[in-house]
Amino acid sequence: MAQGNVGTLFGALADPTRRQVVQLLSSGPRRAGELASASRTSASTMSRHLRVLLGAGIVADERPAEDARARVFRLRSESIDAVQAWLDELHAHANAQLMSFKSHVEGRARDE
After folding, report:
1. Contacts for 70 with CB less than 8 Å, ≥ 6 apart
2. Domain spans of the chain?
């Protein structure tokens, strides 16, 4: 994953209210008003937070056929997958470094 994309995702998730929105959406799609109420923020503040999350690709919005004026927000699994892939890559590098260090220490112990 490109470093810029990870930075954008983590930048968007740096705000506690946005993290709360993500947590709320993890249980299913919700309307902006529901998110604002659950996070105890005003509609205009929630709108700004949702704009950031939409821009980062963390959430998507849809307009239900029965009410085209309403917007329903949901998590985009691709963003979660991207963060997980980045973390998996870090984990693999850390394990490789640890194994290299272990080999080095074991080699020195044999030489002594």
Report:
1. 31, 63, 64
2. 3-111
Q: Where are the beta strands (DSSP E) in the chain?
A: 30-31, 59-62, 72-75
> What pLDDT is stored for residue 1 in this prediction?
44
Domain at 3-111: CATH code: 1.10.10.10
Whole-structure pTM value = 0.73
Q: Which residues of the chain have pLDDT under 70?
A: 1-4
DSSP 58: S
The first and second tokens of residue 22, run together, are 């993500």
Q: CA–CA separation, 65 vs 111, rounded Å?
A: 73
Q: Which residues of 72-88 are buried (b: 16+ CB within 10 A; e: fewer)?
A: bbebbeebeebbeebee
Chain segment 50-73, per-residue pLDDT in tens = 999 999 999 999 987 787 778 899
What is the rounded CA–CA span in Å between residue 61 and residue 70? 10
List alpha helices for 14-76, DSSP H. Answer: 16-25, 32-39, 43-55
Read off the DSSP letter of residue 26.
T
